[in-house]
Amino acid sequence: MNTSPSVRIVLSLRINFLCWSFSFSLSTILQQQFNRVGRVEHGSVALPGVIRSGSIGAESLSMGTMPSAQQQVIMGQMHRGHMPPLSSAQQALMGTINTSMQAVQQAQADLGEVDNLPPLGQDMASKVWIQNKVDESKHEIHSQVDAITAGTASVVNLTAGDPTDTDYTAVGCAITTISSNLTEMSKGVKLLAALIEDDTGGSNDLMGAARNLAGAVSDLLKAVEPASGEPRQTVLSAAGSIGQASGDLLLQIGENESDERFQEVLMILAKAVANAAAMMVLKAKNVAQVADDTVLQNRVIAAATQCALSTSQLVACAKVVSPTISSPVCQEQLIEAGKLVDRSVEGCVQACLSATVDGEMLKQMSSAASVVGQVLGDLLEHVCHYASHGEPIGRYDQATDTIMTVTESIFSSMGDAGEMVRQARVLAQATSDLVNAMRSDAEVEVDVDNSKKLLAAAKLLADATARMVEAAKGAAAYPENEDQQQRLREAAEGLRVATNAAAQNAIKKKLINRLENAAKQAAAAATQTIAASQNAAASNKNTAAHQQLVQSCKAMAEHIPQLVQGVRGSQAQPEDLTTQLSLIITSQNFLQPGSKMVTSAKSSVPTVMDQAAAMQLGQCAKNLATSLAELRTAAQKANEACGPMEIHSALTAVQTLKTELQDAKMAAIDMQLKPLPGESMEKCAQDLGSTSKSVGSSMAQLLTCAAQGNEHYTGLAARETAQALKTLAQAARGVAASTTNPQAAASMLDSACDVMEGSAMLIHEAKQALVSPGDSESQQRLAQVAKAVSHSLNNCVNCLPGQKDVDMALRSIGEASKKLLGETLPPSTRSFQEAQSELNQTAADLNQSAGDVVHASRGSSTQLADASGKFREDFDDFLDAGIEMAGHTQVKDEQIQVIGNLKNISMASSKLLLAAKSLSVDPGAANAKNLLAAAARAVTESINQLITLATQQAPGQKECDNALRELEAVKGMLANPNEPVSNLSYFHCIESVMENSKVLGESMAGISQNCKTGDVPASHTHDAIAEAAQLMREAVDDIMVTLNEAASEGGMVGAMVDSIAEAMGRLDEGTSPEPEGSFVDYQTTMVKYSKAIAVTAQEMMTKSVTCPEELGGLASRVTTDYSQLALQGRLAAHTAEPQEIGFQIKAGVQELGHGCIFLVQKAGALQITPSDSYTKRELIECARTVTEKVSMVLSALQAGNKGTQACITAASAVSGIIAELDTTIMFASAGTLNAENDESFADHRCVYKQNVNNWGHFVSPHEHSQTFTDAQSRASCRAVSPPGTATAPPTTVRLSRG
C-alpha cells in the first residue's frame, strides 16, 4: 500500500506475544473509538513451566530469550459490532450528506447527454455569441471546480481531529458547497459540450471527465459519513481523487492555469514537509522512550501523532487544490493546512521540552522542527508566488514609491545640504534598481516595440539620475551654497518627472492585470453566491427575503457574462485601449448589482433554517463583498491610469456593430440568418422599441455636452450611446432573424446600419466639436447629423411588424378627416332613422375596435396589425355615418357641434393608435399603459358625446346607449383583473363594491318600475324587463354574500398589512399624480388623518385589555386612515418647498407605516390569542411607537407651510401650456395641423426670440448648471427625439452635473 511518509510513522507500541495469535483484519470492535490515543499496557501472557516425566525418557532442555517487542501497524476492514449513538450535530450532517448524495446522483444522471441547441447561423454575431457562451461556460465551470476543491480541502481539514471536537455545521457547509456547485457545474458542462466541436470526440471526453468528478465526490460523501467507520486514509484517498478529477476536467475545457511543473514542485514541497515531519516524529519517539513520567510520555506520543496526521492532511490538501491553486479560497485551505502543521510541530516541541532535559535530544528535536518550518515556508512561498503570477513589474511599485517619497524629502530639506545629500544617495539607489528592473524586462520582452520602449525609458531615467548625482556632488562640496542646493532640487524634480514617464506603461499594465484578476475573482464569487442562494431556497422561510434574493441573483446573472467577456477581451488584446476600457466599464457596472446581492444574501441568512446552507450563503456573501471591494479599487486605479478613452472606444464599438449588421444582412440574403437561443420576434421587437428611446436620449445628451466643450461628460454620453446602440443592433438582428420575409429582414438591417453609420458620424462630429466648443459651423453639422440619426431611428422602429400597419391607419385617419374641413357637407341620401341607426352601429363597431386595439397592443405584432387595420376601416365607416348625420341637422350651430365632435373623435383615435404603437414597442415604458387606457376612454367618451348630440331628442335613449357603451368599455377590465384600475385598497374596494351593489339593486328595481309606467304601448316588453331586473338582483345578492364572506375571514389582517405596504410603496413611485390643491390643503388633511391614527392607537391600547375582539375594526380604521394619509403625503411632498421638506414628509410617513404594520399584526395576533399577556405588551409598545411616529409626521408638516401657493399657481399654468403643446403635437403627427389666418414662422420669430430671452431673465441658473447661447439652443432643439414624438421648439437647455 502506497502511503505518505507521515502515515508510515511507527509509534512505539510494544506488545509481547508468546502463544497468542490475532488477525486484526478480521477483528470485531465492540465499542469503536475514533482517533483515541492510548498506551498499551505491557505484560507477559506466558504460563510457568511444569516438569513432568517424559514418555520417551529424558529430553534436552533449551533456554533462550524472548524476541524484542514488535512494532507494526495493520490496516484493513473491521467488523463493527456496535457503534455509539450519533449526536444531534452528526445526525444533521447525515441529513446534509443524504441530500447532497441525491444531488450528486442527479448530476450524474444529467451528465448522460449534452444539451440540445437550436440551429445557429454562421454570421459574425452568431460566432461571437457562441464564443461568448463558451467563455462564460468555462468561467462558470472553473469557478465551480474551484469551490468543489476548496470544499473538499475544507472537509479534510475539518474532519482531522477528535469527532467530539469537530464542527459538524462547518463540515455540512463544505459538503453543501461541493454538491450545489456540482449541480450547477453539470449544467455548464452540458452546454459547453454542445457548443464545442465534436470532430475529435472532445465533448465525450469532457462529459466523461465531469462524470469522473461526480463519482469522486460520491466516494468522498460516503467516506465522511459519521456512521461509516471508514479509516482516515479512505477520506484522504477520496479527496485526492477529487483533485485528480478536477485537474482532468479543467484540462478538457482548456482552463488548467497551473502547469505540470508547478504541480510537480508543489507536491515535491508537500512531500518534503511530510519527510521532515517524519524525521521530527522519530526524534519525538526517542524523547518518549527516555521519559520517566508516563503522563509526559503519553503527551509526547499524542503530539507526535497529531503532527503526523496534520502532515498527511497537508499532502492531501496539496493534491486536491493544486489544479485550482489560483483561487483564493483554495489558497486559504492550503495555508490553513500549513498552519495546522505549524501548530502541531510547535505542540510536539513543547511536549518534548516538558518530557526531558536531555540537551542533545532537545537540540535534535529543535533542529528537526526548524527543518519542517523551513520546507513549510518554501511550500507557502511557492503558492504565493504563483498566486501573484510572478509578475516582475511588481518591483516598479516599490522603487517608484521610494523615488516619490525621497524627492518630497529633498524638497522639504532645502537649507540643510547634508540631509539633501543623504536623501539623494537613497534616491540614486532607488532609481538604479528601477533602471535595472526595466532593462531586465526589456531583455525578456517578446514584443520588439515594447522592448525598445522599455530601453528608451530606462535610458531617460539613467540620464536624469546622472544629473541628479552630479548636483548632489556639488551640494556636498559646497554645503553653504544655495545655488548648489537649488540645482539638486531641480535635478530631483526632473528625476521625478522621468520616473513617472518611464514607469507609466509598466504600472498601467500591472493595474490592468490587477483589474483582470479582481474581475475574475468577483465573477467567481458572484457565481458561488448564486449557487448558494439556489441551494438555500428550499429552507428559506421568509418569502419576501427569498424573492428579493432571487431578483438580485437574476440581475447579477445578467452582469456576470459581460464581466467575463471584458476579462477575456482584455487578456486576448492586452495593448488594445478599447478592450481595456470595456473591462473598466463592465467592472464599474458590476458593482451596484453585486452590492445589492450581498445585502440580499446577508439579510436572508437568518431566515434560512438549514444551518449548513445558511453558513454557505453567509460565507459566499462575505467573499463577494471582499471581491467587490477589491474590484472597486482596481477599477478606479485602472481608470485613472488609462485616462479618457470613452469617445474613441465608443466610435470603434459603433463601427464594429455596423460591420456585424452588414454581415447579418449577407446571411439573411442567403437565408442563413438564424435567431440566437432565447430570441423571439416579440422580445426583440420590444427591446428595439425601448432601446430606440434610450439611444435618442443619450444622443441628445451627447450633443449637449459636446456643445459645452465638456470632454468628460461627452465621453460618458458617448459610452452610454454605444451601449444603447449595441442593444439596438442585437434587437434589430433578432427581429430580422425571426421574420420569414427576406425583404422585411433586409429593410430592418439596412435601417439599423443607417443608424450605426449616422451614430458613428455623430460621435465623430462631437469629438471634433470639443476642439472648438463655440464654433457655429460645428454646431450646425452636429444638428444636421442628429436630425439624420433621428430619422434613421424612426425608420428602424417603423420596420417592426405591426408598426407600418399602425402608421397606415394613422395616415388613413388623417386623410379621411380632411372631409371635415370643407365648407359644405354632401347631401344626405338616407332618412334620419336610417342615418341614426347607421351611426349607432358604426359607433358600436368603432368602440369595439378601440378595445381590440388596446388588447392587441399587449399581444403579438400580428394582432396589432389586424386590430389597427380594422380600426381604420371602422373609423372610415363611422366618419361617413357622422357626416351623413350632420347633413340631416338643420340648425347651423348644431351642425358645427357635430362636425366638432367628429374632429374630436379623429384626434382621440390618432392618440389611441399612437399610444398603442408606443406601448407595443416598449411595454415597460413609464405610464404607457395608463396613457393607452386614457386614450381608449377618450375615444369612448367622444363617441358618446356625438351619439348624445345626435339622439338627444329621444328621451332616455342616450342614457341607455351611454350605459351600454360604458359596460362594453369595462368588460375588458373584468377579462384581465390583474391590472389595477384605481388607487383604492383592498378594503376600500370591498366597501365600494358593497355600496355600489346596493345602489345597483335599487336602480334595477327603479328601472323595472318606471318602464311599466312611462311606456304603456310597449307593454310586451314588461315581462322581459322584469325578468332581467330579477336576474340582476340575484346576481347582486350573490356578490354581497361573497363580499361578506371575504370580509369575515380571519386573514383580514394580512390584507390590511398589504394595503399599508402598498400605500407605503406608492409614496416612492417616480410619477406622482397631478396635485389639485396647495400644500396647505394637503397639510390640513394629513394633520386630520395623523391625529385620527394616534387616537385609534390609544384606543387599541385600551381595547387590548378590556375588549380584544374589537381590535379588528380598530385595525381596519388604522389601515384606512393611513392609506389616506399616504396619498395626501405623496401630494404634500410633491408640492412642498424646499425639496428637503418633501423628503422629510415622505420619510415620516414611511416610518409611521412600519409602525402601523406592526400594530395591525399584533392586533391580529391578539385576536387569535386574547389571553396572551406577552402579545398585549407588544401591542401596547407598538401603539406607543405609532404615537411617536405621528408626532414626527406633524413636525415635518409644520416645517413646510411657507410660500408655496405662488409656485403651485405657476406650475399649473405651465401644465396647461404643456397640454396645449401635446395637442398640437398630436395634430402634427396626424397631418392635420394647419396654420391659422395664413400666418408663417417669420411672423412669430421675433416674438418667439423675445419671449425666450425674457424667460431666461426669470430663471436663476443653478451653480452646477450651464446655459446655452442662442446658437446652441438652435442646435440643441434639433437634437434627437425618441421615435413617435415630435421635435420640441427651441428652448434653453440646461445640463445638471449634480
UniProtKB/TrEMBL annotation:
One term of GO molecular function: structural constituent of cytoskeleton
Domain Talin-1/2 VBS2: 392-507
Domain Talin IBS2B: start-end pairs: 642-803
Keyword Signal: yes
Talin central domain location: 89-250
Residue span(s) of domain Vinculin-binding site-containing: 1078-1202
Ranges in a coiled coil: 501-528
Domain Talin R4 residue range list: 514-638
Highest taxon of the lineage: Eukaryota
Pfam families: Talin_IBS2B (PF21896), Talin_middle (PF09141), Talin_R4 (PF21692), Talin_VBS2 (PF25177), TLN1-like_RS (PF21865), VBS (PF08913)
Keyword Signal: yes
Start-end of Low complexity biased regions: 1282-1292
Endpoints of the signal sequence: 1-21
A GO CC term attached to the entry: focal adhesion
Key words, A-Z: Coiled coil, Cytoplasm, Signal
Listed GO biological process terms: actin cytoskeleton organization; cell-cell adhesion
Main localization, broad class: cytoplasm
UniProt name for this protein: Talin-2
Organism: Oncorhynchus kisutch
Gene transcribed to yield this protein: LOC109883809
